[in-house]
Design a protein that fits this description.
Quinone Oxidoreductase, Chain A, domain 1, NAD(P)-bd_dom_sf, 340 residues, ER, metal-binding, seven-stranded mixed beta sheet, 11 helices, Rossmann fold, Zinc-dependent alcohol dehydrogenase family protein
Length: 340
């Protein structure tokens, strides 16, 4: 099969022939039809994730058809159209038993702990627990655009963030996760302030429902009349994390969505304000497979194609991933690799 491979962290990304994967007894092999290019894939390439072993194939936002099935798989057949959360759960640990598969104790992450979906085929573990059927008419590019970013944003805004209609929501960073958060929060009745340095990203955030867009954090407190009720750092930078917390009103909630690898530095969080204003700081790590039906129903009336910035082929994926070295200069919207 053709796949994007790197053999050292931060080294050359090459599209080349590699062996086809085989399914494990409880897994499947997916023929990838589309896969998103996410900043988390950039973190894997740059060596920010300790679970990545070399050589490696990145990619974790995918949709496609089941091509091969392990002998213990019961729910799926060859040809089924599916997607999958980026955290594939084991299905048996205490976290999974409580419905919290997104923090499974023995999780498998395609594109991180195993080879990912920048390839014609990808092996997925624990298929009966993790695969999600795609509704009829739900195309692969849209499903890949949902990927980890829309799913993570959905859970971050509505579950972890506990958004109520009419609240002010600040979104720091309008990449795929941030734009998804804007779209979801606006659809849920929030008033949204989107913050980003990219004019193109801010323009798209406005189209997706942001009432106010800003190029700096200073505007948030003034626009919201004292600070946001809910703020999300979707950029994953020390300064955006600190700004998100700093611009909350009393009893506000901060949800960290963007990854913060230690090598980038420690965010200067104003803990004196966390105490004095009784702020809440929360993390959000993906979404469970069992949440997908509710999420897809919530998204059914949305024009999700608007989240897609460009469509490229597998041969163009290395360049698209390398471009994330300069996230501010990246194109607005989600880049999706089409293979099917």
């Amino acid at each position: 099969m053709r796949a994007v491979v790197f053999e050292r962290f931060g080294g050359p990304l090459e599209t080349r022939e590699v062996p086809d994967p085989e399914p494990s007894p409880d897994g499947v092999v997916l023929a990838v039809e589309a896969t998103g290019v996410c900043r988390s894939d950039w973190h894997a390439w740059r060596g920010h994730d300790s679970g990545v072993k070399l050589p490696h194939v990145p990619g974790h936002e995918m949709a496609g058809r089941v091509a091969a099935i392990g002998r213990r798989v019961r729910r799926w057949r060859e040809g089924d159209r599916v997607t999958v959360p980026f955290v594939c759960a084991c299905g048996t640990c205490p976290r999974c038993a409580s419905g919290q598969q997104q923090i499974c104790d023995d999780q498998f992450q395609p594109g991180f702990t195993g080879w990912g979906s920048f390839a014609q085929f990808v092996a997925l573990e624990h298929a009966d627990v993790n695969l999600v059927a795609l509704p009829d008419g739900f195309d692969a590019v849209t499903a890949a655009a949902l990927g980890c970013r829309f799913g993570t944003a959905y859970r971050a805004v509505l579950r972890q963030g506990g958004l109520a209609a009419g609240e002010w929501v600040a979104v720091f960073g309008c990449g795929g996760a941030g734009l998804s958060a804007v779209l979801i929060a606006a659809a849920a009745g929030a008033r949204v302030v989107a913050v980003d340095l990219s004019p193109d990203a801010l323009a798209l955030a406005k189209e997706l429902g942001a009432q106010v867009t800003a190029g700096s954090a200073e505007a948030v407190r003034d626009v919201t009349g004292g600070g946001a009720h809910l703020s999300l750092d979707c950029a994953g930078l020390p300064e955006t994390c600190a700004a998100s917390v700093s611009n909350l009103r009393k009893h506000g909630r901060h949800v960290q969505v963007g990854l913060l690898p230690p090598g980038q530095g420690t965010p200067p969080i104003p803990m004196h304000r966390v105490i004095a204003d009784e702020l809440r700081i929360l993390g959000s790590h993906g979404i469970q497979a069992h949440e997908y039906p509710d999420m897809l129903e919530f998204a059914s009336g949305m024009d999700l194609a608007r989240l897609v910035g460009r469509r490229i082929g597998l041969e163009d994926a290395p360049q698209a991933l390398a471009e994330l070295d300069e996230p501010v200069a990246a194109r607005a919207g989600v880049t999706v690799v089409e293979l099917g």
